[in-house]
Design goal:
Blueprint (H helix, E strand, L loop, with lengths): L9 H14 L1 H11 L51 H5 L1 E2 L2 E2 L11 H14 L1 H4 L8 H12 L15 H4 L3 H10 E2 L2 E2 L7 H18 L1 H4 L3
Antiparallel strand pairs: 1-2, 3-4
The structure holds heme C.
């Protein structure tokens, strides 16, 4: 082994090694910061507008008479895009009656009905049954529990889509039931977007027609 390096004075060698190790720290810190996430605000050497006093949710603010920092919505205001004045589209109502038609802004084609079938199978079939006879899995299970006498005595069965009463419902009323629910059935406005609700209503009608094609000849 050559002894060349020992020709440098020892302290120089040690100082050089220490500097080398120290020089590796900043790049290591930067590499670490770039590769990881932190919920903390970044360090600002020169603070900008992001750093200033502010009120958090539910805090008090003496500037207002009611002392609340969170201001209530000015009554009568409507968020952009939330006016919903189209009663036909949003509520299934035309004038004073249930709508008989699907709103014109909706394009009714095969894909629309397929979508309705898919959504029905996801959201409704569990109770109303795949073919709409009110014999879904939830119903069967609830019926079993009620009959066993161990879990209550009351179960309101999901309505069959094929009773005369439901078949006579205009599409607007079906849409309304899906949107707001009916008696023991909850509404689905928060889970299912407007257009999908129309698709389901259209699919329910298609299902009804398919089950009663012969009897009424209205297919
Ligand atoms: C958790 C079970 C459940 C689900 C899911 C469900 N329903 Fe119902 N539905 C019911 C029950 C129960 C009734 C009967 C309510 C009553 O008579 O009190 C009912 C009633 C109805 C009626 C008749 C309303 C009337 O005015 O007579 C229609 C139409 C209907 N459901 C459509 C749907 C559609 C479409 C979906 C899917 C978006 C759906 N339901 C999802 C349980 C359900």
């Amino acid at each position: 082994m050559s002894r060349n390096q020992s020709q440098l004075p020892r302290p120089f060698v040690y100082a050089g090694m220490i500097l080398l190790v120290l020089a590796m720290i900043p790049p290591a810190v930067i590499a670490y910061a770039r590769a990881t996430h932190s919920p903390l605000p970044r360090i600002q050497l020169q603070q900008d507008m992001g750093v200033q006093n502010r009120f958090d949710t539910q805090q008090a603010n003496p500037m207002f008479r009611d002392g609340r920092a969170m201001r209530p919505r000015v009554s009568g205001t409507v968020a952009r895009g939330h006016l919903r004045e189209d009663e036909h589209y949003y509520d299934g109502i035309v004038g004073d009656d249930w709508a008989d038609t699907i709103p014109i802004q909706i394009e009714v084609d095969r894909a629309f009905l397929e979508r309705g079938r898919e959504r029905y199978d996801i959201f409704c079939a569990i109770c109303h049954g795949v073919a709409g006879f009110g014999d879904g899995m939830v119903h069967e299970r609830a019926q079993e529990l009620v009959e066993s006498g161990r879990h209550g005595t009351v179960w309101v069965p999901p309505t069959s889509m094929h009773t005369r009463e439901v078949r006579e419902k205009p599409i607007g009323e079906l849409f309304h039931v899906i949107t707001h629910g009916a008696r023991n059935m909850a509404g689905y406005a928060s889970q299912i977007p407007v257009e999908d609700r129309w698709a389901i209503a259209a699919y329910v009608q298609a299902m009804q027609i398919s089950q009663h094609a012969d009897e009424e000849g209205d297919s």
